[in-house]
Design brief:
There is one protein chain. The chain has 327 residues and is α+β, with helices and mostly antiparallel strands. The protein has two domains: 235 residues, Metal-dependent hydrolases (TIM Barrel); 74 residues, Immunoglobulin-like. The chain has a nine-stranded mixed sheet, with helices on both faces. A six-stranded mixed sheet has the order 9-6-7-10-11-12. A hairpin with a 5-residue loop joins strand 20 and strand 21. It is globular and about 55 Å long. The N and C termini lie close together (8 Å).
Length: 327
């Protein structure tokens, strides 16, 4: 039985900060400069942004941090499985974020990235031990004081054996707005649920992965909302590590939890609420709004056999918000 708990502090009890954890600029393959990107996200009401260049660690916090906006220094590190020695085709890849961690994490780390430090992508030909490669990549990022996430698994063509058992990442992308619109390979909760069913504590991440090419929309379509006592790197990253956040492509999650054997979620007006559960076949349930009566709260009676539960809140435009899992 999942015990009584509250998944998020109420908005009146702790501030909430909106951020994009995955973005690219002209420092890698993006089309906006760092300054242009920061300006764009600040204008849209974001409070934090990770400029996550391909295999290039950047730290623009000294340049762009201010009272109402901060940069999370980071990098998107890579490992590739190629078809041949000429690297003519990428068969699979791991793209993993290293987001500079809390002050304590940085102080305890044996290594530290410097601004504009390049990382060498890992390359394999023909075959690989995908899980071992992912672990090595994640552990190297962690050794530099970074919090680790796993990006766009469907787009990366990974197989379950490449990911299942990965325990160094606090989150996995379930919504990557760029690849949703580029090639329809950015929406994926299957790998997340597979990790959760194996007992791993990993959160969902919605992000843009924006490159701003102008050919299709890839910005302001996926974000996280972190509950943190203050807008600092340490406070926001700690909230992410603790799972004190939700991810969204549109709806707001006001609160969720379990009380007296009933699971509940409160959200902005939505057309349906899904309670996704681990456990035996048949656990989990959906509430669909009656015509003209959007849902702002949904409750579900638990059976006692749920290994975990999480919520999806879907609005009239099909946009989804994802809570993290309760156990």
């Amino acid at each position: 039985m999942i015990s009584d708990q509250q998944g998020l502090p109420r908005p009146q009890d702790m501030p909430r900060f909106k951020g994009n954890l995955h973005s690219h600029t002209t420092n890698s393959d993006g089309c906006l400069t760092p300054a242009e990107s920061v300006h764009a996200f600040r204008e849209r009401g974001y409070q934090f942004l990770c400029l996550s260049e391909h295999d290039l660690f950047t730290d623009y916090s000294g340049e762009f941090d201010r009272e109402d906006f901060i940069i999370l220094p980071g990098v998107e590190a890579s490992a590739y499985l190629y078809a041949d020695e000429a690297h003519t085709a990428r068969l699979r890849c791991h793209h993993m974020h290293g987001i500079l961690g809390t002050d304590d994490m940085v102080a305890a780390a044996p290594k530290r990235f410097t601004h504009m430090e390049r990382l060498e992508p890992k390359a394999y030909v023909g075959s690989w031990d995908g899980l071992a490669v992912a672990r090595e990549l994640g552990e190297e990022l962690a050794a530099h004081g970074c919090a680790v996430t796993y990006n766009h698994p469907i787009w990366s063509r990974i197989e379950p054996e490449d990911l299942m058992g990965l325990d160094c990442a606090f989150g996995i992308e379930v919504w990557n707005y760029d690849t949703v619109n580029e090639c329809a390979l950015g929406a994926d909760t299957v790998h997340w649920d597979m990790l959760l069913r194996r007992g791993l504590r990993v959160g969902a991440i919605a992000a843009d992965d924006n490159h701003n090419p102008g050919t299709f929309d890839d910005a302001f379509g996926g974000w996280v909302v972190a509950c943190a006592p203050e807008l600092t790197r340490t406070a926001v990253v700690q909230a992410l590590l603790d799972g004190r956040y939700y991810s969204s492509a549109g709806p707001e999650v006001r609160g969720f939890g379990v009380k007296d054997g009933r699971a509940w979620v409160e959200c902005s007006p939505c057309e349906r609420v899904n309670m996704i559960c681990g456990g035996p076949i048949g656990v989990g349930e959906t509430r669909i709004a009656p015509a003209g009566e959007p849902l702002e709260r949904a409750e579900f009676t638990l059976r006692g056999t749920e290994a975990y539960l999480r919520f999806e809140c879907v609005d009239a435009n099909g946009r989804t918000a994802w809570t993290n899992a309760l156990r």
